[in-house]
Amino acid sequence: MASEVLAKPQMRGLLARRLRIHMVGAFLVSLGVAALYKFGVAEPRKKAYADFYKNYSPEKDFEEMKKAGIFRSIK
Questions:
Q1: Residue 13 — φ and ψ, nearest 5°?
Q2: What transmembrane ranges does the database entry give (predicted)?
Q3: Which DSSP state fits 60?
Q4: Could you list the pLDDT tens digit for every one of the 75 residues in the chain?
């Protein structure tokens, strides 16, 4: 059998190099999640609130609640 000499693995700086790669990956993933949340949740929510309050009348809503008997102190 021919015995081959294996090259020694690079051990010095291994943690720092792998940590740098993982930190860049984690940063990119977090940016992606933040963008998905902003455009998938926050923007539609802001639009829904804007659409609701565009035609909202508090006086009309108060009169409807008054007719329904929600307020006990108002006849």
A1: 80, 10
A2: 21-39
A3: H
A4: 567 888 888 888 889 999 999 999 999 999 999 999 999 999 999 999 999 999 999 999 999 999 988 888 876
How many Å apart are CA 50 and CA 29, to the nearest integer?
Answer: 30
- Provide CB contacts within 8 A for 71, sequence distance 6+: 65
Q: For Cα atoms 20, 21, 24, give the angle at the middle one, nearest 5 degrees.
A: 85
User: What CATH number is attached to the domain comprising 27?
Assistant: 4.10.93.10
In a domain? residue 59: yes
* 14 half-sphere exposure, CB direction, 13 A CA radius: 4
pTM here is 0.65
Residue type (1 letter), 5: V
